[in-house]
Amino acid sequence: xxYPGYGAADPLWGYFSAVAGADQQIDARELQNCLxxxxxxxxxxxxxxxxxxxxxxxxxxxxxxxxxFNEFKELWASLNQWKQTFMTYDRDRSGTxxxxxxxxxxxxxxxxxxxxxxxxxxxxxxxxxxxxxxDFVACAVRLRSLTSAFQARDAQKNGWAQFQYDDFIQCVMCx
Length: 175
Known about the structure:
Blueprint: H1 11-19, H2 28-38, H3 49-59, H4 69-89, E1 96-97, H5 99-108, H6 115-125, E2 131-132, H7 133-153, H8 165-173
Antiparallel strand pairs: 1-2
Helix pairs in contact: 1-2, 2-3, 3-7, 4-5, 4-7
């Protein structure tokens, strides 16, 4: 299946179509290869397969485990925003952010998290007290996805949600 209107007119089409199969969908390994080839991570290390998996899960509205071109374009826009934010807070240009910089970056995305929640993110995503770009993106993806899942279940919009156990497991394990 071709995507009408793409091709030479959309520079992202070349990256996507180079790895997409006949179904014009890409899986996590293909996404990882595509992002590496595109150079979107700049001088940072390539994205891990796990980060590619959760990027697909974030946008996998049909639960196919794959991503079409429109989802890829949506991801690309998010990645560019996250990269700009990462570069803003990586003040020493080390290719990593420190915990206080991660806190500031998360706040800049509009999240209001407790110190305990922020510290949990640092423990999860840092190595030797530093967060690299791949882990920064993984953190951003999980925050976006889990916040969206929570908000969908927060009927009163008061910061409380009710989950059945199976629903909870699906939310957190699919990321």
